[in-house]
Amino acid sequence: MTVLLLRDLKLSVRAGGGALIGVLFFMTVVAVIPFGVGPDLNLLSRIGPAIVWIGALLSALLGLDRMFQTDREDGSLDLILMQEHPLALTVLVKCLAHWLGNGLPLVIASPLLGLFMNMSEVAIGATMLTLLVGTPALTFIGAVGAAVAVALPRGGLLVSILVLPLAIPVLIFGVSASYAAVEDPAPFMPPFLILVAITMFFAVIGPIGAALALRNTAD
Q1: How confident is the model at residue 43, as a pLDDT?
Q2: Most buried pick, 29, 88, 97, 210, via CB within 10 A?
Q3: Which of 57, 58, 56, 49 is nearest to 188 (CA)?
Q4: Please, which contacts does 11-14 make with residues 24 or more away whose CB atoms are closer than 8 Å?
Q5: By the 8 A CB rule, do 182 and 125 touch?
Q6: Nearest to 135 by CA among 189, 64, 69, 68
Q7: 155: helix, coil or strand?
Q8: pTM
Q9: 107-116 b/e with 16+ CB inside 10 Å = b?
Q10: 9-23, 54-68, 75-89, 195-209, range with the lowest pLDDT
Q11: Cα–Cα distance for residue pair 122/91, rounded to 1 Å
Q12: CA-closest candidate to residue 60, choices 106, 117, 109, 114
């Protein structure tokens, strides 16, 4: 499993939609917002956590279709389906590698974009923490969409369509927790713990659903 993790981590970085492209797209989405809303620093500070989260969500969609497509193209997907290890465990390792190569760089880049949005230190820290907890859920959800679309020649758009509605709860509670950290009447822990629960739920359901979809695709 360690070999698979290192292999998929290299592929996730090298393949189209890797860490660099994801971070650049993330920065582009956040950077264009001030041009649309104007140079009001107070407004940018208020909407900053939501904009950073939306940018991270859209960036996380990049490259999801390549999670299993590369394995299908080089024939290694057939070997993965025939191995003795549980397929869901293999998918879990692939999800971890994908998040390390694509999701974690977004989390690391978020403080810089928070400064760009004139966010306070507390808001930046809360947003970064919620992204650290919430972005793995996007990967687990995306694994199911990627498995469904793996046999399609142009499945990237389908993956985004399948993943985006399921990712809305992650976005809602991630933004809610980020705002709660800077708004005294609103407690931080309830939405944050719900976000943790969502990630744990999809960490179980996502690999199982993706494994079933891959089995059906092979059949």
Answers
A1: 85
A2: 210
A3: 49
A4: 11/70, 11/97, 12/63, 12/66, 12/67, 12/97, 12/98, 12/100, 12/101, 12/102, 13/101
A5: no
A6: 64
A7: coil
A8: 0.88
A9: bebbbebbeb
A10: 9-23
A11: 35
A12: 106
* Cβ-contact 130, 195 below 8 angstroms: yes
Q: Which helix (H) or strand (E) holds 59?
A: helix 41-61
Token look-up 């650049």 returns 24
Write the CB contacts of 152 (distance below 8 Å, at least 6 apart in sequence). 158
- The first and second tokens of residue 64, run together, are 């999801």
The residue type found at 34 is: P
Q: Tell me the one-letter amino acid at 207.
A: P
Look over the chain and give the mean of its residue pLDDT values, rounded to a whole number. 84
**Which tokens belong to 121?**
């230190």
Contacts of 7 (CB under 8 A, 6+ apart): 97
For the chain, domain boundaries = 1-218
The vertex-133 CA angle with 33 and 204, nearest 5°, equals: 125
The token pair at 93 is 């390792």
Q: How far apart are CA 93 and CA 133, in angstroms?
A: 17
Q: What is the pLDDT of residues 82-109, one digit of tens each?
A: 777 788 888 898 899 888 888 899 999 9
Q: Which residue type sits at 113?
A: L
